[in-house]
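We emphasize that the prediction below concerns an isolated chain of 164 residues; any contacts that depend on oligomerization or on bound cofactors are therefore not represented. The input was used exactly as deposited, without trimming of termini.
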Amino acid sequence: MRNGDSRIGAVSSQLSHGYKPNDLPEGWNDTLDECVRKSSSLCNPGSGIMRLFCGFDDKCSTSSKWTYVQAATNLDRYTMVGLTDDFDTSLEVLGRLLPDMMGQVAAIYEEQTMDRTNLYKTNNRLEPLESTKEALREQMSYEYDFYHLVRGKFIQLKESLGIT
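Result of the prediction step, given as a token string:
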């Protein structure tokens, strides 16, 4: 799971330099600041990652208290949900929880990525205006709450496994 601020930065970079949708809708080349100012659907976070935990009900596609509660309830069905902002530890937790299948995943990941980490970073990332970040944080308030719930559960799990 990814921190909301990190997602905001990624959306900004995708709109500015990176990924371009196949269907190039109007505004695809806007900065994130312009996109938010225009209230474009391209930068509307919707229910984001929560919809993946919420389920298949149509209500899961909108960010709401109902979506949050459903996603939080379903979260207990997962053995572990890792964090991209603590990816190495997430791999270590996986290795401890599922040693037969994932015991070496952290070592393999480190070996495979040690020389490639800069290949996947966006160059020249434009930082959005603080007003843009605030507007998106407001739109994504349930998404932030859900992230912090997941993060709290992850911290409890790693502590229970003796991982610091």
